[in-house]
Amino acid sequence: MLNQNLVRGLFLAAVALFFGLGALRYPIGNLSRTGPGLFPLLVSGFLLVLAIATLVKSRLVQAVPLQFSVAKIALIMFGLCGFVLISQHVSMLLAIVFMVFIVSYAGTAPSWKRNLAISAVLAVIAYGFQRFLGLNLKLI
Amino acid sequence: MDILHNLAFGFEHALTLQNLFYCALGCTIGTMVGLLPGLGPLATISLLLPLTYSIPTSSALIMLAGIYYGAQYGDSVSAITMKIPHAASIVACIDGYAMTLKGQTGLALFTAGVSSFIGGTVAIVVLAALAPSLGEVALLFGPADYCALMLLGFICVSVVTTGSVINGLAMCLIGVLLGQIGTDLETGTPRFTFGAQFLVDGVSLVSVALGCFGIAEITKNLDEKSERTPFNGKIHLIPTWPEFKRIWPSALRGSVAGSILGILPGGGPTIAQFAAYAIDKKVSKYRHEIGTGSIEGVAGQAAADEAAARTSFIPLMSIGIPENAVMALMMAAFIIKGIQPGPNMIAKHPDLFWGLVASMWIGNCFLLIINVPLVRIWLSVFKIPYSVLFPSILFFCCIGTFSVNNNLEDIYVTAAFGFLGYVMMRLALDPAPLMLGFILGPMLEENFRRAMLLSRGSFTVFVTRPISATLLGVILVLFIAQLVLMLRARGASRAGKPVAASERDTIVASPESARN
Questions:
Q1: B187–A36: do the CB atoms touch at under 8 Å?
Q2: Between chains, do B223 and A4 touch, taking CB under 8 Å as contact?
Q3: Does A3 touch chain B (CB under 8 A)?
Q4: Chain B residues within an 8 Å CB radius of A109
């Protein structure tokens, strides 16, 4: 079981180190003539302090189990990425159907009839956006 | 007299057919997103932001503002009828739902609607009177003062939305760091772009907002698998005269509390509701009934909720500093439309400022009609299953992202922020402070660098300037207060006092409300 507090501390530390070490690649300058790296370095330093405080706190308080459902977020990511690829290479109408069918598996009791109905309504809305709001959607 | 003259000028602009249409549209959308789960005003405004490019400036801002304050009305309906506080009506669940259990749903809805109207009206008067004079005060602010004000905003938002200064502040800082991606405006150096051309202009605000609030929220709701039972009870809306007489004193108290708390940094509807409820519990003639389903328990908080939503526009429009995440997004809307909110905004764009203020009152009237006589229609919204709703919201997230640059690949960035937002939610890190940090980050850096340049690299400029020193003093007091509260809560929990548990519940409950 992963401890939510501990993972939170590690996550914050990773973000702080990512931006902090990245900031060192840019000129730092001095306080009166600050370079592009100084401000992100200061902010990441402060974030690192908060990350360390979170890590220390996680050792002192009772552990909270981390709940994370990989399947649902993965299905949604897959649906969105598929939407982009199909829109680029085939058509947006097909991309809508693909996305609706894929993401419906992240919900409860997916039904192909309902999915087709949702896809049809969204296709009409997309047409409305293209026709009346002037959005450059490649529907077919 | 000046205010009346200016308001008349505002009504001239707000009462055009086009602005009336967008005001009604904003209020209707706002009410709907207030009712629906998983789609708060923050996600909706970010969703519609790119679509407002083709709408005239004042109409677009009137519509977006309508969504924000309209959501506060709609939220009360779901809280009262089904005990679902989607956006910011946690307190309405207490007495409002208790009234539903007593068979007084109609009275509770009428009370919430009328009180929100009173709250909104009082707040508009405060907004019209205070915003211009506060704008004059803002002209005294230097770069160091702006830095201190933004830091105060970060601290206040962290305390209010997450209940934990460490978590909230960490999210603000992550937001500031995400705002660093792109070209440094002073030196032209690309930062954290890793050679990717699409990052040179920085990360799109719409991608961050839709990812962290739209996609992440949907995934979280799907994880919870909570089933909703539609409300099928009877509604008798018209109260008796003695019942009506009990509404307005509480509503007025709530309006004053909400108007004041809405202006303060980090303030907004959530904290205002709790404050109004606490005031009524102390001073109301019927205080012994509060908590068991009383009119006062609904009226005060509904008025405070609505008043705070309106007055939170004051710091944005007069100083140019948004005080919460929704206002940060409103600020982005102003900037997209080529308007810099701040001390000069009222002088430069009087039609826009006074038109927006006047439209708020018109919106108030629309909302009263939408939420009181037409409330039965809105309750049918709950019958839409979430399995139909969430693929549609995902589709709108895609279209919203695409429409910013007409670039489908931007959806990858939104999806990445959706994943990041979901991870943060699972780690109990509220994304609302991140949004504020992301929007204020570049402004904070600019003012920090300017303050350092003017003081020749000396940090003493932050304590020698009276405004900055005062604001930093407030931050220090807030830190000490948080520390004392934390130590007291720990002491009480060790002693096994039940008070600590209820305090903790309140704190845990508030992020849900503030997030939207």
A1: yes
A2: no
A3: no
A4: 387
Quick check: A32 and B453 in contact, CB under 8 A? yes
Burial class (CB in 10 A: 0-12, 13-18, 19+), A24: exposed
Cα–Cα distance for residue pair A117/A135, rounded to 1 Å: 23
B58 touches B19 (CB < 8 A)? yes
Do A66 and B449 count as a contact with CB atoms less than 8 A apart? no
For residue B291, report the phi and psi dihedrals to the nearest 5 degrees. Answer: 105, -15
Mean pLDDT across B228-251 = 76
The CA distance from B203 to the nearest CA of chain A, in Å, is 15
Q: Which of B93, B136, B49, B95 is nearest to B291 (CA)?
A: B95
Would the CB atoms of A76 and B418 count as touching at under 8 Å?
yes
DSSP string, B239-272: PPHHHHHHHHHHHHHHHHHHHHHHHSTT-SHHHH
Tokens matching residue B193: 């772009």
Closest CA to A28 of A18, A49, A42: A42
How far away is chain B from the Cα of A140, in angstroms, using its nearest Cα?
Answer: 15
Instruction: Quote the ipTM score.
Output: 0.93
Residue B268 pLDDT exceeds 80: no
The one-letter amino acid code at B125 reads: V
**CA–CA min distance B419, chain A (Å):** 7
CB of A75 less than 8 A from some CB of B:
no
How large is the average pLDDT for residues B480-493?
80
B359 close to B15: Cβ distance less than 8 angstroms: no
Contacts with B, A 78-117, CB within 8 Å? 79-81, 83-84, 87-88, 96, 99-100, 103-104, 106-110, 114-115
Residue B120 is which amino acid? Answer: G
B507 pLDDT band, cuts 50/70/90, is very low
What would the pLDDT profile of B280-304 be if each residue is shown by its tens digit? 888 888 888 887 888 888 888 888 8
Of residues B3 and B20, more confidence is placed in B20
Tokens standing for B239? Answer: 């109260």
pLDDT digits (tens, 9 = 90+) for B423-471: 998 998 888 788 888 988 888 999 999 999 999 988 999 999 998 999 9
Residue B469 burial class via C-beta count within 10 angstroms: exposed 0-12, middle 13-18, buried 19 and up: middle
Residue from B394, B405, B411, B412 to probe the interface with A (highest A Cβ count within 10 Å): B394
What percentage of residues in chain B have a pLDDT greater than 70?
88
- 3-state SS assignment for residue B286: coil
Average confidence (pLDDT) over A67-81: 90
